[in-house]
Amino acid sequence: MQRTTLILDRSSALRETFGIEASWWSNAFVTDLQALVLQVTGIPARVTTTIQIAAGAIEEPLLILSGDTPHLPESRIRDAYTLLANGADLVIGLCDRGGWYALGARQSTAMGRIPVTLEELRPWLDGLQRRGLQVAHLPLWFRITYPSDLATLAVALRTMPSNYAPTTRHLLGDSANALEREWGA
Hints:
Elements: E1 4-8, H1 11-18, H2 22-41, E2 46-48, H3 51-56, E3 62-66, H4 74-85, E4 90-95, E5 100-105, H5 118-130, E6 135-141, H6 147-158, H7 166-171, H8 176-183
Parallel strand pairs: 1-2, 1-3, 4-6
Antiparallel strand pairs: 3-5, 4-5
């Protein structure tokens, strides 16, 4: 069974919060997510801002990852595809402050119009339930939405294997020397 993973480019949303610097962050985030997807599935990720058009052309299981989650554990991607293979029509990974970081579908046509904003999410989920679709949930995770999230991200990356989000780590200045200074070594 072929798997397709799209990465939703959230650079415009990041620029609203972070300013022009968000272009650098967004490029690093997407680079790290693409590397993660290749590591987990062996299939290149497609990066798009027009997910409705792209999703409509995909017949096999589909997973869409939010482009502001470079620190996503590989187990979340594997779990999403496992849930889809075991009968879930849709899989969703919700964010701790609302919104989503992952949306998966056994058939992309089951998704309909894909929610991009928080305001669209609840009515979309309600509509799926009314249609009788089986929706599975991944554990909560966090997206990079506010400047304070960068500090949370730096802490999260310290607990993850060093091959996670290497480009983002570099931008955060997360080098061995910085960690030694932090711990007083």
